[in-house]
Amino acid sequence: VRLVESGGGLVQAGGSLRLSCAASGNIYSINAMGWYRQPPGKERELVATISSRGTTDYADSVKGRFTISRDNAKNSLFLDMVNLKPEDTAMYFCAATWDTEIRGPTYYPAYWGQGTQVSVSS
Questions:
Q1: pLDDT above 90 coverage of the chain, percent
Q2: Residue 6 belongs to what H/E stretch?
Q3: Which of 109, 81, 100, 73 has the alpha carbon at shortest distance from 20?
Q4: Are 83 and 59 in contact (CB under 8 A)?
Q5: What single-letter DSSP state applies at residue 29?
Q6: φ, ψ of residue 73 in degrees (nearest 5)
Q7: End-to-end Cα spacing for the chain
Q8: What's the DSSP call for residue 100?
Q9: pLDDT of residue 78
Q10: DSSP readout, 50-71?
Q11: Confidence label for 24 from pLDDT (cuts 50, 70 and 90)
């Protein structure tokens, strides 16, 4: 399975971005997917997840501002981010697993993309 992220960039606080993740390869092994991020000098953290049935979950820090979605017909995952804040600055990673859901922040998906940088200026 190969995951390729796109859509990152530099945006001012209050702005919006849409991240995309394209999956290829043995996509039939993919069920749940998620977005993680790693701020500069900090550990990677879970941002949002979507189960194989479409159930979504979010970190408290992004609830109400970020929306995760997927298009199974196009093997794609998305993260719509609005009202971005400087603390959202991080490398964002797409991840996928054969499990039906990503069970919490300590779960480690099997498949990862290389990441896309999001920078938010104040």
A1: 93
A2: strand 2-6
A3: 81
A4: no
A5: G
A6: -65, -30
A7: 37
A8: S
A9: 98
A10: E-TT--EEE-TTTTTTEEEEEE
A11: very high
